[in-house]
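Lecture notes, unit on protein representations.

Consider one protein chain, 1022 amino acids long.
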Amino acid sequence: MTLETGPPGLQFLARDLLSDPNDPRVGSGRDNSSGGTLSHATQSGSDSASANALGITLAPILIYSAICLAIFIAFRSRNPRVYAPKTLSNVRLPAEASPTLPSGLFNWIKAFYRIPDDEVLRTTSLDGFFFLRYIKLLATISAAGCICTWPILLPIHGTGTAGLSQLDILTIGNVKDPRVFMAHVVVAYIFFGFVLFTICRECIYWINLRQAYLLSAPHSQRLSSRTVLFTCVPRPLLRQSKIRKLFGPSVKTVWIPTDTNDLRRLVEEREQTSLRLEKAEIALIKLANAARNKAISKHMNALRSPRDAPSLLSARRWTGETGASGESRSVWDGKEEDVNTKTVRGSMSAPTSPVELQHRHATEEQDPDLYEHPYGLDPSLPDVRGSVAAQWIPVESRPTHRPIANYGRQVDTIRWTRLRIKALSVQIAKLRRQHRRGDGTPLNSVFVEFDTLANAQTAYQVLAHHLPLHMAPRFIGVKPDDVIWSSLRIKWWERIMRRLLMMGAITAAIIFWSIPSAIVGAISNIGFLAENVKFLSWVNDLPAAVKGVLQGLLPALALSALMAAVPYMLRACARVAGSPTKTQVELFTQEAYFVFQVVQVFLITTLTSAASAAFSKILEDPWSAKDLLSENLPKASNFYLSYILVQCLGRSAWSLAHIPELVRHQLNKRSQNPRFRFGAWHRLRRVHWGALFPVFSNMGVIAMSYACIAPLILIFSGLGMGCIYVAYRYNLVYSYTPEPDSEGLLYPRALTHLIVGIYMAQVCLIGLFALQISLPLPALFLMVVFLVFTIIVHFSLNDAIGPLLYNLPRTLALGGVQDFEYDDQDDALDTGDVFYDTDIEDPVGEPDPAGEMSTYATRGIEGGSTLVASLGQMAKSIFTSQVEKEAEASGLTRMLERARLWFAPGPGQPPNFFTRWLHPHVFEDFQAMQVKFGAAWMAPPQEVEYYQKYARDAYWPPEMWTPLPKLWIPRDEARVSRQEVSHTRKTIPIYDEGAWLDETGRVQMDLDKAPFDWPPVPYRAA
């Protein structure tokens, strides 16, 4: 399950409860989507919602959340792999260790809340940290909105004269007196001014924290932090000599990737063939041991004691016969040898317990003779392919398949895959040598590593080419596993065409996506359609349970599928548009998905809800549309009261329960493939931030848009965001992987998305004021002025933070701001390096006619200007001193001084809440943010020693460096794995340590002894 879809069980439950055929809001929006259409209009045309209906809607959601929380509390300590995998040393990286919580049912809550934000920042990524801060910001805005709006607007709405009832009485639609709207304007100025200031200060906070992160030792030591990706590079510059000449001696390494499609196909085929070989080896081992165990069980009753089994079963031996196909056969000669006959050591003993097997394997792992003939068996056994397994199974039972390359003819899988891997390895090595020599077709992109972070930032920020859109766009800090290699070949003109095409496709999808949503909404109101559409009249004859499924379950499934496909569609569009990295794909998805959310979930739902409520009346009297819309538009907010809490409560409870992961983990225990078990054990859940941020940004937009229209929505928004914060804080610290990470680039975009909510609120207020019968001109004019002011702030904010999104300032890249701060010695004029030429001075004694005439023309009385300035200064001094005396005598000075200490930073004074909040540039600057990363992060950067092959192959496509996969098969008592390892490792690395067959023939394993690389190389993971 992905984070952008939400819990399925909750969607079904919520749709079933909200599917009242008498409720016009049915189908207006579910699961972060639209769905409101004119087809939702009921016969009554009412859109009112009562407190009882709201309670009935929320009660099952609370029960559902309680069940999920009960599952979480019950299984949290019993299954740490699901609920706290980052506390396990064999799952997470050492740097990502999370603090351990108590194992009780409830005593962990206190310890969890005591985890500081610094620890959250250490155990998760910048994206995760800023997502939690974003949710906290939305909750803070909602709480501040309640403080600003409730004491003023709720009494005004409640005492309105429009005659509305139930929850509608608390909306602006209940106000008829136009003079009262000035209160809404004053509240809007205060509340939205607070939101604008909060967004600006959060941008400052983000800039300082991100700069501290980029300059921290763990990040600055990375190879990716010193590497710049240039795209759309012209063909003449696709040479190392040209790149080094362009950027000078600071260039350390240049990677010019080539077209490796042929090589990629060979590497993929080798990967698939290797996995097929591994599965065949495991199947062969299990078949041979099953036959062996069956033979032992069959003859066990004829023995006097278990220790006689080897003597009896040694009669089944290798006779060297071959079948018609040339394969070796094992033959049972039916003769019983004497008890003293030499037995086959190790292959005939009865199965032992898992503990004994594991102990035996641990003592045998260091024995090199185990993988040499005779593998601890009878020396007379020939060392030919499959001879050990052939003691127990015939050749016909060996794994086979029909490859297309062999025209569908049946082949022995193990023999065929070995030969195929050997042939593929030769072809891959040959192609790799050709590409390293530069024989391939170069792509239109270049990776350039510089010697220092400062030089990399300089090369990234300068204009590299004189032609437009050449060697641009460029990216810094790109990790090798973040590159989309197929996008590097795109030319500059192709990038423009692709982007325009995808923008047009997304625009068309946003416009026409309401068509399937309208169909789903119509199905959800099937009772209304059955009464008004003749060919659907048979629906009324269906049983109530079937109608409930049609109205509740079916629309929920359809709408869930529709909305689940949107982020995937947008990611595909981003790749087609030419995004060269996965981070850029997520940023593209964030922008497009936010527009999709605002249009489908908010605008269409709000407008159609208001129109459908008065649809029949508008048809009767079209001229009354203006008045009806002004009355019914505020009522559309009633749906979002349930929508926000249902989404937040359901999503948070579902994310804590981890039900899919819990089931999947139990199923993984039954897997018989060691590789699959290893991957499932170490694979943590990823978060697609590009699809997660827009969902909550849209909720913030909805809450702010209705803040002055229906202030009751703010408390629902605040409580919902609080639930989300707690759930995601736990999951990010204990469950979710910190990858992928855009290094915080999604946060400023999400902040600017909140300004859309201010725009929506201002436009809605302006529209409501304009729709009134008695036009409130003063209120309307002030809201238009505030809208213009918001636009100015928005553009100014983009201009301010735009250069700091990707660029690192030169003052920080060169070592920190300490070297560039003010110093007392700066007061003295430093003329050591100042060029001074006396020739530029005017010659002494030579008159300047133009200057003299200008002086005589403007001068009246000699010394008059000096006298006026002196008198003005004297009057100002007398007035200032008199005011200071009067203020001192009245106590005003002391009061202002106390107030200043609360709101203005004082030298040497510890900051309080207000000073820290009002002055982030002082108390949350670069130095303060460095402290958040701890002492280790403030250490001076040191060169990281990578393995030579990783430093060499860093920015080549994966097919240029991907090694042969390692195979992992179980060790068995029949010693089939010993011979298979001995024969197969001549072609591909294969191991049988750490995995074994138990007495029942099932594969058991010790994941700590897996042959795969873990933890991964820091370069690849970081």
